[in-house]
Design a protein that fits this description.
7 strands, 33% helix, 7-stranded mixed beta sheet, Maf protein
Length: 201
């Protein structure tokens, strides 16, 4: 059962990534909460200097909360490839460079796997969600989905590394899956379920 009173009416999504914004907004708006992006409010992206997904999510949420005076929800997520010592990990976006060329980043993953002669292609997507309130309260939640990476990108749905990730028990990449199917099982959905249980239910 949902709470009869919402913890907040308006929420800043502390991201400039349009793909993330679309996914998070789709998850939050059914609860009757208005969402606005940090980019639309002119809040600059802080430099991600932490060494964990949760640390970087908190850093981004704090910056947006401080700048707007509104509760802020930030996501920090990435792909960990086990044979590459969990790279690109927290540097997933940075591997794509300033132009956000994820096809180049996916090619680099395959290049490194080939260079190592790696046969283990296991990987996981990780998502950390951090919620920061104007009164200083903070909450963080982490979700994951495990699977493997394929050599050649497939599909045009989703964003980022979705075209090379196949979740356990599936044969299609996140780039091939229907978005509704992906959203129901993704790392972001896992983290968001924990967020809902703690904050909205």
């Amino acid at each position: 059962m949902l709470k009869t009173s919402k913890p907040f009416e308006k929420l800043v999504i502390a991201s400039h990534n349009k793909g993330k914004l679309k996914e998070i907004a789709a998850l939050v708006t059914p609860f009757g909460i208005e969402v606005v992006s940090a980019g639309d409010l002119g809040v600059p992206e802080p430099e991600e200097t932490e060494v964990t997904f949760i640390g970087n999510a908190l850093l981004k949420a704090r910056a947006s909360c401080l700048a707007t005076g509104l509760p802020a929800l930030a996501d920090d997520s990435g792909l960990e490839v086990m044979a590459l010592d969990r790279a690109p990990g927290i540097y997933s976006a940075r591997w794509a460079g300033p132009d956000r060329d994820f096809y180049a980043a996916m090619a680099e993953i395959e290049r490194q796997l080939q260079a190592k002669g790696a046969t283990d292609r296991s990987a996981r997507f990780v998502c950390a969600l951090a919620l920061v309130y104007p009164d200083g309260r903070e909450e963080a939640f982490e979700g994951e989905v495990v699977g493997e990476v394929v050599a050649t990108p497939r599909g045009s749905n989703g964003f980022g590394y979705d075209p090379i990730f196949v979740a356990k028990g599936h044969t299609e990449t996140f780039g091939e899956l229907d978005p509704a199917v992906k959203h129901a099982m993704s790392h972001r959905a896992d983290a968001f379920a924990k967020f809902v249980a703690a904050v909205l239910s």
